[in-house]
Amino acid sequence: xTSASKLSSIRTWARSVKRDSVxxxxxxxxxxxxxxxxxxxxxxxxxxxxxxxxxxxxxxxIGYLDxxxxxxxxxxxxxxxxxxxxxxxxxxxxxxxxQRPISRGGMIAxxxxxxxxxxxLAWAAFKYWxxxxx
Length: 134
Description:
Oligomer: single chain
Distance between the termini: 70 Å
Number of helices: 5
Structural class: mainly alpha
């Protein structure tokens, strides 16, 4: 297996994990999913978003093992507990959510606001910052 094909398979796996994460969120809100599957999905999402890890990330190599092993295992377990037809629907919806185009207008508006804020800050600093007397 060449390095290009390995990289391609890793990218495909990462996309499927991302899609399944969104699908788990959607499934946790579906009334057809059992409560224990919902609880596990919420716990996995909380752990993924929590600043507290079982193994702190600052420990070299070992610190990222929980993110690379525990989270995918938790996602796999939660998916196994969700009925297949519900998970298939949620994966379809998640794929659609992830393929939505990004709002260029919103992006431009935010960039313009940041530039305007930086210019206002620069103007205020120039106007009100005490200058050394020569």
